[in-house]
């Protein structure tokens, strides 16, 4: 495999630089206003699987940065384990049509972006393209910040997206990393989802309503539609800027098999009587899940609360807390002590409920459905930070 896959345009290549290097010196690349699209493009070094080691130091620095942002989110995995896992993720990305682009000068790696095409993660919610470009990492060396290199790496994401014909883009960052949140907001990304984690400890029993909670039978699943759809509509109320949203039937069509599978595995909890359920919690237990493994240590099995919903007229009476406590008991009985839950960005009430049960906002995801479109329409980015 060639070391570098040079783009044809060659702006600002230093005379002394080796082939493929990009001049990102402060004298030629000026800091850009927030959201302004950079004019300079490549050439870049396209990393192949054999040369991923070149970005190792930058990844390790990023992992240290993640630890320093919010030490309370620890324990964290060691630097060695973090890189081992990240490298695997990059290998997988390259093997499935993704790309790692390295910006370098004089053979020194100044920054890189790793990205891959992937199925859009929330088809039950957003009426968006089926695929998006997932930015796995975008980082520049600390002494190269504010020189426009981040913007140029973002331009490389756009180039990759248009090359493969995908508009939507997705990125995640550690909760509390305001600098990252603002950077992506400047580029038109919107906060979309917050994943909260409770790792290595059972969900504590909150004092909730005294309501019977049972595992629901698979035959009850069709009745769950009337509990799920208000959640889908609630998403549209609390995060309207993230639309368009899918219609009710599409949303239910995506979730029905998920609810059925949960019920078959005894992971669908129902509050109140089967004939008139007051609320549900839908759980999943995945074995070998490794999407947190480059940052946080987990056991082999990781649970996820896929959905929690309480009938609108029964909210605020402790049923949500009772469902959460029952979910905790169920997971403990199955020996699972790591659990995550996601909430749409604007769902502050749910985030508060899960936080009160010891979950901590850990991973924030942002999307832009069309490159740059939000900036054009709104002028100033909405920099909601976590
Ligand atoms: C989130 C939800 C499941 C909580 O169920 P609930 O029975 O109302 O919750 P409880 O009465 O047990 O607990 C209320 C707690 O939830 C939080 N909360 C949830 N929604 C809230 C809201 N709209 N306003 C204020 N607090 C809210 C608060 O922390 C509150 O605790 P507090 O009363 O001690 O301050 C329910 O509001 C719901 O179905 N919401 C719509 C769907 C949803 O957002 N699901 C979660 C993501 S899938």
From TrEMBL:
The lineage of its organism: Bacteria, Pseudomonadati, Pseudomonadota, Alphaproteobacteria, Hyphomicrobiales. InterPro entries: Acyl_CoA_acyltransferase (IPR016181), GNAT_dom (IPR000182), NAT_camello-type (IPR050769). Residues 1-43 are annotated as: Disordered. Keywords: Transferase. This is GNAT family N-acetyltransferase. GO terms for molecular function: N-acetyltransferase activity. Residues 53-204, 211-381 form the N-acetyltransferase domain. Pfam families: Acetyltransf_7. The keyword Membrane does not apply. The keyword Transferase applies. SUPFAM superfamilies: Acyl-CoA N-acyltransferases (Nat) (SSF55729).
């Amino acid at each position: 495999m060639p070391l570098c896959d040079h783009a044809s345009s060659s702006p600002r290549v230093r005379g002394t630089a080796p082939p493929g290097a990009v001049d990102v010196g402060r004298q030629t690349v000026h800091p850009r206003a927030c959201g302004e699209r950079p004019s300079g493009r490549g050439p870049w070094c396209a990393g192949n699987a054999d040369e991923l080691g070149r970005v190792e130091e930058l990844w390790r620095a990023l992992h240290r940065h993640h630890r320093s942002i919010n030490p309370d989110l620890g324990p964290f995995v060691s630097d060695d384990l973090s890189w081992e896992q990240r490298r695997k993720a990059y290998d997988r990305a390259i093997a499935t049509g993704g790309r790692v682009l390295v910006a370098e000068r004089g053979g020194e790696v100044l920054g890189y972006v790793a990205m891959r095409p992937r199925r859009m993660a929330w088809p039950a919610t957003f009426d968006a393209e089926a695929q998006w470009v997932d930015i796995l990492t975008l980082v520049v060396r600390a002494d190269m910040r504010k020189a426009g290199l981040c913007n140029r790496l973002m331009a490389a994401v756009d180039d990759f997206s248009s090359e493969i014909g995908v508009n939507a883009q997705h990125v995640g960052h550690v909760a509390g990393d305001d600098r990252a949140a603002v950077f992506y907001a400047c580029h038109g990304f919107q906060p979309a989802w917050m994943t909260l984690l409770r790792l290595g400890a059972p969900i504590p029993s909150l004092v909730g309503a005294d309501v019977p909670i049972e595992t629901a039978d698979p035959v009850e699943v069709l009745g769950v539609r009337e509990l799920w759809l208000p959640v889908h509509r609630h998403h549209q109320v609390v995060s309207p800027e993230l639309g368009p949203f899918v219609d009710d039937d599409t949303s239910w069509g995506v979730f029905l098999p998920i609810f059925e599978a949960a019920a078959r595995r005894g992971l669908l909890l129902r509050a109140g009587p089967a004939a008139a359920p007051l609320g549900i919690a839908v759980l999943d237990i995945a074995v070998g899940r490794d999407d947190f493994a480059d940052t946080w240590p987990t056991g082999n099995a990781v649970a996820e609360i896929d959905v929690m919903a309480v009938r609108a007229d029964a909210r605020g009476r402790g049923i949500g807390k009772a469902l959460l406590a029952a979910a905790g008991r169920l997971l403990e009985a199955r020996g699972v002590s790591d659990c995550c839950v996601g909430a749409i960005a604007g769902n502050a009430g749910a985030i508060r409920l899960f936080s009160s049960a010891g979950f901590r906002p850990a991973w924030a995801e942002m999307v832009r459905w069309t490159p740059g479109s939000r900036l054009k329409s709104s002028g100033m980015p909405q920099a909601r930070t976590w």
